[in-house]
Design goal:
Order of helices and strands: HHEEEHEH
Structural class: alpha+beta
Low-confidence stretches: none
Strand order of the largest sheet: 1-2-3-4
CATH class: Alpha Beta
Oligomer: single chain
Number of helices: 4
Shape: globular
Distance between the termini: 32 Å
CATH superfamily: Gcn5-related N-acetyltransferase (GNAT)
CATH topology: Aminopeptidase
Number of strands: 4
Number of domains: 1
Largest sheet: 4 strands, mixed
CATH architecture: 3-Layer(aba) Sandwich
C-alpha cells in the first residue's frame, strides 16, 4: 500500500512509511483481493486495491486513499470497493461522508456522492508542504 500511494497516487506522492503507518493505525482499512493474479498458487489471493476510512464510527466518515493497482483498473473494482464501504458505513448509521478527488468524480457519483451543496460554509487548514514549481 505504501509503495502504491507514495509512488503513484498524486495525493500521496512521497508520503513516508512512518506517516502511512500512523494513518493506518487511526483508520479503518479496506482491501480488494484477487485470486486472478496469483502466480498459480491454489487459493492464494493478492491485494490489488485499498481504501482508508477515517471515522468517529457514529456520525461522520472521510473516505480517502482509494487506490486500485493499475493492472487491475477498468474492471469495476474501485466502484465495487466504494459501494461496499458506503453500504457498511450506512448500515452503521453513518450518514455524512466526505472525500476529495481530482479525477474520479464519476466513480463516486455512482454511489451518491455530490459536490458540496454549500462550499462556502466549509473551511480548511492545510499546512502540507507545497512542492516547488518547475519553471
Amino acid at each position: 500500500m505504501h509503495t502504491w500511494l507514495s509512488g503513484d497516487a498524486y495525493w500521496a506522492l512521497g508520503r513516508s512509511r512512518e506517516v502511512m503507518d500512523r494513518a493506518i493505525a487511526a483508520s479503518e482499512m479496506w482491501s480488494v483481493l484477487s485470486s486472478e493474479s496469483s502466480q498459480g498458487a491454489e487459493g492464494a489471493e493478492e491485494q490489488v486495491g485499498v481504501a482508508r476510512v477515517v471515522t468517529d464510527g457514529a456520525i461522520f466518515a472521510w473516505l480517502c486513499d482509494v487506490y486500485i493497482d493499475p493492472s487491475h483498473r477498468g474492471r469495476g473494482l474501485g466502484s465495487a470497493l466504494v459501494g461496499a464501504i458506503v453500504a457498511d458505513l450506512e448500515a452503521r448509521g453513518i450518514r455524512r461522508m466526505l472525500l476529495a478527488t481530482r479525477d474520479a468524480h464519476e466513480v463516486y457519483a455512482g454511489h451518491g456522492f455530490t459536490a458540496l451543496a454549500d462550499p462556502g460554509m466549509w473551511m480548511e487548514r492545510d499546512r502540507r508542504d507545497l512542492r516547488p514549481s518547475r519553471g
